[in-house]
């Protein structure tokens, strides 16, 4: 920078001198020398500028390196402080372990002392057991003697029991005699409440009449359920036949609303057969439809048998009967919806 400043000062002097020389109109030879020196000085200035820029970049890079080094030093100082803390913690742990070791050694001493005392106690107990075994042997001998005495007493008691059994048999014979006497007394007493028996017979007759009425009501209920199931079964079959005929006549756009049903009824009346028989005649040759109709027929048969079984079983059966009827009603509802949708499409 100092060289730069010196060169700039020299350039300014040269320029000043050239200006003064131009004014004084001096000889042209020294002016050329001044121009050459000016160019040299400018080249030196450029070189010094480039060197200055290089120096500034190196200074910046060095500053960055210095900052990085300082950050590394800080990190290392922080790590050193952490290591010092860890060292202090480890020292404390070592001191704790040493104290625990001492405590464990003291506990071992106490446990050894307790073991010795326990061994002494075991020896004492063994000696006590020997003494107790000797005493038990003596007691056993005494018990054997007492057993012989008790056996003698048992034989005496047995003889006494046999005598008492004889007395009991005599008493039982007396009891039988008293029972015969009691039966005679009961026959005499039964003749007196003859009026009460008549009243009970009348009450039984009234109860039998009530039972007959209840059984009649039950039979009426069964007849109602059977009629209801038959009607449901018949309506479901008719809906199935209508749906099948509607599917067959679905491609005929010229048919009006309700024509398929009227045609079915008219054909059945001419042939003097039912609608189901007519549909079976129309469906001849279609294996899938015949198989389907057979399956439906079997399901209906099973449903009727199930209801018959429910009516024959014992009470209660109302919930099961309701479920079975509800199942058939749901099937009828689905068939009605299907038939209505088919009739809308055929319009």
Head-to-tail CA distance between termini: 107 Å
Shape annotation: flat
Biggest pleated-sheet summary: none
Mean pLDDT: 77
Structural class: mainly alpha
Secondary-structure element order, N to C? HHHHHHH
* Weakly predicted, low-confidence segments: 25-29, 251-259
Count the DSSP helices: 7
Query: Which range best describes the helical content: under 10%, 10-25%, 25-40%, 40-55%, 55-70% or over 70%?
Result: over 70%
CA-atom Rg in angstroms: 65 Å
Count of DSSP strands: 0
Q: What fraction strand?
A: under 5%
Structural overview:
This protein is 92% helix and 0% strand. The protein has helices spanning 2-24, 28-191, 194-248, 259-271, 275-282, 287-312, 318-346.
Topology:
Elements: H1 2-24, H2 28-191, H3 194-248, H4 259-271, H5 275-282, H6 287-312, H7 318-346
Helix pairs in contact: 1-2, 3-6, 3-7
Briefly characterize the structure.
With 347 residues, the protein is mainly α. The chain has helices spanning 2-24, 28-191, 194-248, 259-271, 275-282, 287-312, 318-346. It is built from seven helices and no strands.
List keywords for this structure.
347 residues, mainly alpha, flat
